[in-house]
Automatic annotation (TrEMBL):
Organism (species): Novosphingobium anseongense
Keyword annotations: Heme, Hydrogen peroxide, Iron, Metal-binding, Oxidoreductase, Peroxidase
Protein name stated in the entry: Catalase
EC number per UniProt: 1.11.1.6
Record field: transmembrane: none
Family according to the record: Belongs to the catalase family. HPII subfamily.
Length: 528
């Protein structure tokens, strides 16, 4: 009945009709057009078909249809918070990085903690590595320290990363197990990858079932460089030390918590920050030179190794405080893009082949995940210092160059000619000598896969060692193929005979396998 008024047609479903009045904002479309009715689509008659002409309905559904973006290919489940970094000890003797110059100065920070293997909707207390990614909005650009809560990694060369992640994620035919290391593919890959043994000791320890994000350490993992104004570089390993102490749950608790509250870690962080109990970490550095690096049998470019803190104590130079939750999870925590390639003048890379690969991977994946090369324009990713360049266009361009000039060199003069390079203040790479044949090779210095695994195991106290043994038995007991179980035990024999015997016993292996071949074939035979 066309004579029916809008008001008369309202409310027939019994809905509460809330209208803008007083200070309440008026609901609009994306175009800013005020909306009269958000409850009913436009129809031909009260019981007739919905009309294509309904601009509000079409826009609303169109936008909803496109709400999802791909989840991160790893570290999909995470939780972020804002805070600041405060320098407590100057590092101006070793780096020109602006963030390390003035004691007491604060730099805004955003941190995202994560699990690695599970999907975005998985549970918080999976036995897994935790990401500890920090974005520091320095006055000379964004520096991202994209670390983990474990100081070493599974593999030495980034070319193995897709295999590692495929093996760790749910198996492709059955699509399970979700967010667990307990399956054949994972242990098959691991047992065929002896370089992962040090990491395996850490992931089977209580480190991978932290009590809270607030009670985890963080590590930059790789050896990086600090660089002074004269271009002299000092090697550095970065550490985050929690003021809350290091705490884990035990496996039984983890299993129960996952069932009772899969959001345990995110709720804990949200509640702590909103309750004014701001979590805090100290930034520690291990600084060393080439001669010190050369004094080890292992290679400081090998991410499966640590530099023991007893040998080189960690110097505490600053503090990171998280004091503000996000306003919007998607805008901030989901859209934040950490890239290892984001370094600032005074910080540089080394030739660690894992780091070199990461420097490509993050930017590449984020283009797909966020959909535009302009993802640096999203507020959470935008630097908080002046930005001036001639990059332009692309999807969602927000900060195109103004005026006529979008190239350099140009002769338009200082006012309209735009920014110019600065050889003094600008980022420059350390002038490292590099020579040699082009080869696919793993150097001999990367070949010892067991010594540090053993050091880690023996450094644990008896109850922690028991937890490692229990975890190995539990995880490997889910592996169906006996040869994979046995192959794992053959590696454990190179780490600790007692541990190997315990695990073999727990798995009821018919016999103890021979120790794995300790000297891993490197492909030096291909060297000229
Ligand atoms: C994501 C750490 C190795 C590729 C992440 C995140 C962290 C992290 C913390 C989550 C970032 C966030 O919260 O948004 C590490 C560490 C590694 C390592 C510490 C080794 C030391 C690698 C390697 C590759 C890689 C070798 C590839 C060659 C990725 C990718 C993402 C990611 C593609 C998803 C990034 C995104 O979608 O934003 N990693 N990772 N990672 N990592 Fe790694």
């Amino acid at each position: 009945d066309l004579s029916q008024t809008f008001g008369e047609l309202q409310g027939t479903g019994g809905e509460t009709h809330q209208v803008a009045e007083g200070e309440t904002a008026v609901l609009t479309t994306q175009q800013g057009v005020p909306v009269a009715d958000d409850q009913n689509s436009l129809k031909q008659g009260a019981r007739g078909p919905t009309l294509l002409e309904d601009i509000h309905f079409r826009e609303k559904i169109f936008h909803f249809d496109h709400e999802r973006i791909p989840e991160r290919v790893v570290h999909a489940r995470g939780y972020g918070a804002h805070g600041f970094f405060e320098l407590t000890e100057s590092l101006s003797d070793v780096t020109r990085a602006d963030i390390f110059q003035r004691v007491g100065e604060r730099t805004p920070a955003f941190v995202r903690f994560s699990t690695v293997a599970g999907s975005k909707g998985s549970f918080d207390l999976a036995r897994d590595v935790r990401g500890f990614a920090v974005k520091l909005y320095t006055q000379e650009g964004n520096w991202d320290l994209v670390g983990n809560n474990i100081p070493v990694f599974f593999i030495q060369d980034a070319i193995k990363f897709p295999d590692l992640v495929h093996a760790a994620k749910p198996e492709p035919d059955r699509a399970f197990p979700q967010a667990q290391t307990a399956h054949d593919n994972f242990w098959d890959f691991i047992s065929l990858t002896p370089e992962s043994m040090h990491m395996v000791m850490w992931i089977m320890s209580d480190r991978t079932i932290p009590r809270s994000y607030r009670t985890m350490e963080g590590f930059g993992v790789h050896t990086f460089r600090l660089v002074d104004g004269a271009g002299k570089s000092t090697f550095v390993k970065f550490h985050w030390k929690p003021k809350q102490g290091l705490q884990s749950v035990v496996w039984n608790e983890a299993v129960k918590i996952n069932g009772a509250d899969p959001d345990f870690h995110r709720r804990d962080l949200w509640d702590a920050i909103n309750g004014g109990d701001f979590p805090e970490w100290e930034l520690g550095v291990q600084l060393f030179d080439q001669a010190f690096a050369d004094s080890f049998d292992f290679d400081v470019l090998d991410s499966t190794k640590i530099i023991p803190e007893e040998v080189l104590p960690v110097r505490r130079v600053g503090r990171l405080v998280l004091d503000r939750v996000v306003d919007n999870f998607f805008a901030e925590t989901e859209q934040v893009a950490f890239c290892t390639q984001n370094v600032v003048p005074g910080i540089d890379f080394t030739n660690d082949p894992l780091l070199q690969g990461r420097n490509f991977s993050y930017l590449d994946t984020q283009l797909k995940r966020l959909g535009s090369p302009n993802f640096t324009h999203i507020p959470i990713n935008a630097p908080k210092c002046p930005v001036a360049h001639f990059q332009q266009d692309g999807h969602m361009a927000m900060t195109n160059p103004r005026g006529r000039v979008n190239y350099e060199p140009n002769s338009w003069g200082a006012t309209i000619g735009g920014p110019r390079e600065d050889p003094v203040r600008g980022f420059s790479s350390v002038a490292e000598e590099a020579d040699g044949a082009k080869l696919r090779i793993r150097p001999e210095s990367f070949a010892d896969h067991y010594s540090q695994a053993r050091q880690f195991f023996v450094s644990q106290d008896p109850i922690e060692q028991k937890h490692i043994g229990d975890a190995l038995v539990f995880e490997l007991s889910k592996v169906e193929r006996p040869d994979i179980r046995s192959r794992m035990v053959s590696h454990l024999r190179n780490i600790d005979e007692g541990l190997a015997a315990t695990v073999a016993d727990g798995l009821a292996l018919p016999e103890l396998p021979e120790p794995a071949q300790a000297a891993v074939p490197t492909r030096t035979d291909l060297a000229p």
